[in-house]
Write a structure and sequence with these properties.
Strand order of the largest sheet: 2-6-7-10-1-11-12-13-14
Bound molecules: zinc ion
Number of domains: 3
Helix content: 25-40%
Structural class: alpha+beta
Largest sheet: 9 strands, mixed
Shape: elongated
Length: 479
Amino acid sequence: MTRYEAVIGLEIHIQIKTAGKAFCRCASDYNAAPNSNICPVCTGAPGALPVLNDEFVKRAVAFCLALGARVNLTSTFDRKNYFYPDMPKNYQITQFFTPIGAEGRLAVTGADGAERDIRIERIHMEEDTAKSAHMGERTLLNFNRAGLPLIEVVSHPDLKSGEEAAQYFKKIYDIAVKYLDICRGNMEEGNLRCDANVSIRPVGSAELFTKAEVKNVNSFAFIAKAIDYEIERQIGIVSSGGAVESETRLWNAKLKRTETMRKKSGRNDYRYFNEPDLGPLHITTEFVEKIGASLPELPDAKRRRLKERFGLNNELLDLFVGYPAVCAYFERAAESYPAGGRTVASWIAGELLRVEDKENFGKVATPPEHIAALAALIDGKKVTGPQAKELFGVMRETGKDPGEITGSDPRFQQMAGGETAAIVAAVVRDNPDAVAKYLGGKDNLLGFFVGQAMKRSQGKADPAEVTALIKKELTNRQK
Ligand SMILES: [Zn+2]
């Protein structure tokens, strides 16, 4: 039986956050009263002339550099001609012949665990269309969205699965929203929109089969499912002797399947030509370098650095790379306790984020230096696990440094060795049945004894010490 592999390319549209629109000075607030932020330019009145927003250019250049793309010092604005009610001038201004950016790359981790670069073919600037809402027989149009600045990123068909596509999309989201802050990132409002081109071919073949386009997979939850469904659907068709049709499909989240939206007949001819009202865009090397110098550290570089410096596992790396604000907090804490980076990281991931929201990680009451001091107490075995959790609660209530709290509060005094031994002896004495079973071979009862002793010590005993003492006590009985 022939085995097939998937060939997937993504086209992602990103709405860029600027005060004005791409080619006019209307406010970019899409949520204002419908059709209140409009003018002759963005509604396509005859004779109105577009003027390029330079903030849009700066953000597009920053985005190209963040994706490792070449920035073209001369790019062109071009007209894409088509007729649709959401575009009354009957063309969209886009960059067709020479886009602002080309040849970028972004790493994904494949199913085999190895990192692989996904090549980015082009990055171009264009304008959004009006938003249409269909109500029965009628269509309502909101021109607040018309003319909003958009960047489109087109990847090469280098992705192999729905999971890889989701990773790539998430990374584009993180860079645009969390690292560069050039997009508001509201997926429900369509600030980021993703279309996937999916086809299959026999494993190892260079031939490309007919592809289907799955439109508007604008959710991290759905993108992998929609693409994987589509791959299976195409394999099913080809395996039973059929042929995949060229069409645009939509993901039906309720029925968990893709469905035909429209068949494609021949190639669309948009009759592209240079936009005569704008002319080519010229930028200088200095302009590009200045923007490059202002970029923050980007996800791939951050991941490599954190891994090398602190030896963090993938789960912690995903957390810190995906949430730059949490990462900044971690790095400040680790700075004041450099040897304990891993303890600090695990404590932030496990305990701090139980009470703080990583999505809105801004004003954290506990200073990072206090978390570092707590980690040092844990590593130095000055407090036990249960004590550390309780101590953290007091730190949050009082805002005090953990050293200050442990110095004065008897709850956090370490139990002396002799006292722990007495508790262990009492636990063994009081549970003769369990002792007999343990000695009869029920090794898993060790946890029961440790639990009992920790309970009696009210969490003040060191669990490692308790475990060792219990083993010793029980072994002595065996003799
Ligand atoms: Zn306008």
